[in-house]
């Protein structure tokens, strides 16, 4: 549904804030097509790396300085809005400080280099190569004075903020290499700032502005014009060249930091810029203030400049991470810039102008969210994880999300005036929205306690966490009905239907839970006990979780003994826990060999002041917990972690929960910005409408976020289905292999080559004794181990090739799954090599 018939456009408004939107779409398309051409040219080798550096030198040493000098000479400083520039400085400085401080607090070990680099990444925009063409398309015809701000905004980062980041990176390098004194560090930073072409030409341009009296001589202007005209296409093409080879395997949990950096750059910076401009621009007319606020928001959405990757390479700090963030951020910014620029053209006379569109969007999002929540419900039920911690709190969060989405669906389609029906829909909606916020905080606290305390501690305090998650939203909903029923407003967004009181309570809920999440995650990161240490390693080996076979056993045994000597307390604690476990006098359904016993010491209280009585109570709670949650599936070897702490991480799904918390935290921050703006402003603008739509999508579409994190954890479900299908087709739940005489030539050759040249070497490298639950499997290996070995020795170049290689070996009867239930997978399933005698029996 288009906005055009619903909301009027600034182009017809006749004010000073006109925007020429007709050129925007072609400008964005043009920019990214040229970037794509540059990427293709670099990818296929049409332009080599050295040739690309030549293009980069031409752009940065000639074209950009000429463009800067020409425009700075012609700039009319009397027309500059210095309050607007001050707002940009404040917003960028706030984001810089926030990112740097959070990095220093959270990252362990302490890394000043990362703090400086991340802060630069989140504040240095691609002002000229990508930003200028878009601003030119929007304002060149209707408001050309706005274009001059880009030349004044760029030096803010280069002169003021970047030197702080460079100093931090220089100090970090000195701490590790001890190369230079403090004076040399300061000199290097100062020299880098002064010799930067942008900074240097900005200063020279200001001098030229005074000397030439804002009119460049004709001959010089022609030369500058030619070089300036060459800038846009060359810079965009060079940006595409720079993207080649930058996305280097940052997947899964490794994408958390890039996602956070992109969110800070593309969402936090524009939101904060918009807010600060609104606070400082009180002396301007309403139209001018709104226009500058939307301009600042659009500027904040520009992606990070490629030069940040050069900084990472120069200082050897987080190069792959910054490269991945830069590539992803550039393409994420495209739709965000387009939508933001489109919303800048919107004139909102009344919220009723966009009521239908907002309700339809919220309705569609809620339907999608309901479907996603029900799917994740099915996954949690089928796997049995819903009984576990922290999944039981995730289960409650999904319930709350379902309530809010159902409430939104009812609200969108309910046109009755009956008071009791209105109460029902708002109870569902408010209880669900507040509940999701609260359970986000609860999950963060649980994750923190699991990592710095123990599972036993969480079991002891879980009742209070449930009370907070369910009770706090219930109390706030009841309170809102008591104090806000007489203040019903005409708001179309149910988030503000009860006016000021609902907005204020929303700010309270969001603020409290944002603080809880940030504090919990910070404490978890700084004090995480689930790290590889000698104590953990010795304990897990002593419990016999993994029995190494072959020649490595003696060496590993000596290492274990050495570790045990260095940590006698862990041995004593483990022994006391085992005795407590054995002395519990109730009937047990969890035998001693259960994986619980492997990590028993990690799951009970870890503090030194825990007495025997408390430990016995913990063992009792843990036994009851494990009896209820042990039977996850009938699928053997679904996970076979080697160490106790790995078992805990896999069981808790800590990485998945962390990613979900960060996504929900982003949703809360967007909601908090919207509520704060609503408290202090009454006039809606196009950017406000954009934020309201974004908040609605986040609010009622969080089920989709949950689905993206947990909805694909379906191995347990599909494993059962495949086994049932195999039973129906083949009569047994085993893999059906073709006869050896029917194998293709490729499979035969691969098997013969492996059998003759590689099998012995492979056996020595990966065979070991592994235990899963009640049984020890001798001389086996996992599918993941074989894939790793194949890549290591060069028989495969990618994991996909290794997977195909392993499947050839399965069909050629070189190896088999230990129970015959699985084909070859790059998973921790157990496999064994088939001996000649076994092979003859299977022909």
Quick recap:
Pfam families: DEP, Mem_trans. This protein has 843 residues and is mainly α.
Spatial order of the strands in the main sheet?
Answer: 3-4-5-7-6
The helix/strand class is mainly alpha
Radius of gyration: 31 Å
Helix amount, in percent? 55-70%
Query: Tally of extended strands?
Result: 7
Number of domains: 4
CATH class of the largest domain: Mainly Alpha
Question: Largest sheet, described in full?
Answer: 5 strands, antiparallel
Give the rounded overall mean pLDDT: 74
The end-to-end distance, rounded to whole angstroms, is 63 Å
Strand content: under 5%
Tell me the CATH architecture of the largest domain.
Up-down Bundle
Reported by name, the CATH topology of the largest domain is Na+/H+ antiporter like fold
Count of alpha/pi helices: 34
Name the poorly predicted regions.
1-17, 530-600, 631-644
The 3D shape can be described as globular
GO cellular component, one term: membrane
Biased composition (Basic and acidic residues): 556-574
Main location: membrane
Biased composition (Polar residues): 577-590
Explain what you see.
Residues 761-835 form the DEP domain. Residues 541-591 are annotated as: Disordered. It is a multi-pass membrane protein. One of its GO terms (cellular component) is membrane. The protein is mainly α and 843 residues long. The protein folds into four domains: 8-347, Na+/H+ antiporter like fold, CATH 1.20.1530.20; 352-530 and 653-710, Rhopdopsin 7-helix transmembrane proteins, CATH 1.20.1070; 534-642, no CATH class; 734-842, Orthogonal Bundle (Arc Repressor Mutant, subunit A). The strands form two sheets. It has a five-stranded antiparallel sheet with strand order 3-4-5-7-6. Strands 1-2 form a two-stranded antiparallel sheet. Helix 14 (319-344) crosses helix 28 and helix 32 crosses helix 33. Residues 1-17, 530-600 and 631-644 have low confidence and may be disordered.
């Amino acid at each position: 549904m288009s906005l055009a018939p619903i909301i009027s456009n600034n182009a017809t408004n006749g004010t000073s804030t006109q925007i020429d939107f007709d050129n925007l779409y072609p400008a964005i398309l043009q920019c990214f097509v040229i970037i794509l051409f540059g990427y293709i040219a670099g990818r296929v080798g049409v332009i080599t790396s050295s040739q690309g550096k030549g293009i980069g030198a031409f752009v940065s040493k000639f074209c950009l300085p000429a463009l800067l000098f020409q425009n700075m000479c012609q700039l009319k400083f009397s027309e500059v809005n210095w309050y607007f520039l001050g707002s940009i400085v404040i917003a960028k400085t706030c984001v810089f400080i926030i990112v740097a401080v959070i990095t220093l607090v959270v990252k362990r070990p302490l890394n000043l280099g990362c703090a400086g680099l991340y802060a630069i990444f989140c504040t240095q925009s691609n002002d000229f190569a990508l930003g200028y063409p878009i601003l030119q398309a929007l304002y060149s015809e209707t408001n050309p004075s706005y274009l001059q701000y880009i030349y004044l905004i760029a030096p803010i980062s280069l002169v003021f903020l970047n030197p702080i980041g460079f100093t931090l990176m220089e100090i970090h390098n000195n701490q590790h290499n001890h190369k230079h004194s403090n004076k040399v560090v300061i000199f290097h930073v100062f020299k880098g700032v002064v010799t930067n072409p942008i900074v240097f030409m900005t200063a020279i341009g200001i001098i030229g502005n005074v000397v030439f009296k804002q009119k460049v001589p004709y001959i010089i202007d022609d030369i500058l014009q030619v070089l300036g005209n060459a800038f846009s296409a060359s810079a965009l093409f060079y940006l595409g060249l720079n993207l080649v080879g930058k996305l280097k395997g940052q997947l899964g949990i490794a994408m958390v930091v890039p996602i956070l950096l992109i969110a800070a750059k593309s969402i936090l910076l524009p939101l904060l810029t918009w807010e600060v401009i609104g606070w400082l621009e009180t002396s301007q007319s309403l139209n001018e203030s709104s226009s500058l606020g939307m301009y600042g928001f659009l500027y904040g959405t520009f992606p990070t400049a490629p030069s940040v990757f050069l900084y990472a390479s120069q200082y050897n700090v987080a190069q792959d991470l910054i490269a991945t963030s830069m590539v992803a951020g550039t393409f994420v910014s495209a739709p965000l810039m387009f939508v933001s620029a489109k919303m800048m053209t919107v004139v909102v006379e009344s919220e009723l102008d966009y009521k239908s569109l907002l309700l339809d969007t919220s309705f569609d999002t809620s339907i999608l969210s309901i479907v996603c929540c029900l799917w994740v419900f099915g996954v949690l039920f089928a796997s049995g994880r819903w009984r576990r911690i922290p999944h039981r709190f995730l289960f409650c969060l999904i319930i709350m999300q379902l309530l809010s989405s159902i409430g939104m669906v009812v609200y969108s389609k309910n046109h009755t005036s009956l008071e009791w029906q209105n109460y029902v829909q708002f109870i569902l909606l408010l209880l669900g929205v507040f509940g999701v916020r609260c359970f986000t905080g609860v999950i963060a606290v649980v994750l923190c306690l699991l990592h710095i305390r123990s599972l036993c501690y969480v079991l002891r305090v879980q009742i209070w966490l449930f009370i907070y998650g369910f009770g706090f939203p219930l109390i706030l909903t009841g309170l809102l009905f008591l104090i806000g029923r007489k203040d019903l407003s005409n708001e179309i967004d149910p988030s503000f239907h009860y006016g000021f009181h609902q907005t204020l309570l929303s700010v309270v809920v969001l603020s409290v839970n944002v603080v809880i999440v940030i504090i919990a995650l910070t404490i978890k990161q700084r004090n995480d006990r689930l790290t590889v240490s000698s104590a953990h390693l010795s304990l897990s080996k002593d419990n016999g979780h993994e029995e190494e076979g072959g020649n490595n056993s003696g060496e590993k045994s000596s290492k274990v003994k050495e570790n045990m000597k260095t940590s006698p307390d862990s041995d004593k604690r483990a022994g006391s826990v085992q005795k407590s476990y054995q002395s519990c006098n109730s009937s047990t359904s969890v035998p001693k060999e259960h994986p619980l016993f492997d990590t028993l010491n990690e799951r009970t209280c870890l503090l030194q002041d825990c007495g025997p009585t408390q430990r016995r109570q913990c063992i009792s709670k843990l036994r009851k917990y494990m009896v209820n949650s042990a039977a996850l599936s009938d699928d053997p070897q679904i996970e076979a972690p080697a160490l106790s702490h790995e078992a805990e991480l896999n069981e808790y799904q800590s990485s998945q929960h962390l990613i979900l918390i960060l996504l929900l935290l982003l949703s809360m921050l967007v909601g908090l910005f919207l509520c704060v703006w609503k408290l202090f402003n009454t006039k809606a603008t196009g950017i406000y409408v954009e934020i309201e739509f974004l908040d609605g999508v986040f609010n009622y579409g969080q089920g989709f976020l949950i689905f993206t994190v947990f909805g694909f954890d379906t191995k347990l479900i599909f494993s059962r289905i495949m086994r049932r299908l195999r039973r129906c087709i083949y009569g047994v739940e085993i893999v059906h292999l073709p006869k050896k005489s029917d194998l293709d030539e490729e499979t035969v050759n691969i098997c013969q080559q492996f059998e003759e040249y590689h099998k012995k070497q492979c056996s020595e490298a990966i065979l070991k004794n592994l235990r899963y639950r009640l049984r020890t499997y001798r001389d086996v290996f996992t599918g993941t181990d074989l894939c790793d070995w194949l890549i290591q020795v060069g028989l495969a170049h990618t994991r996909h090739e290794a997977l195909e290689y392993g499947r050839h070996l399965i069909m050629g009867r070189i190896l088999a799954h230990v129970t015959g239930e699985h084909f070859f997978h790059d998973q921790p399933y157990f496999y064994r090599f088939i001996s000649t005698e076994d092979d003859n029996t299977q022909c």
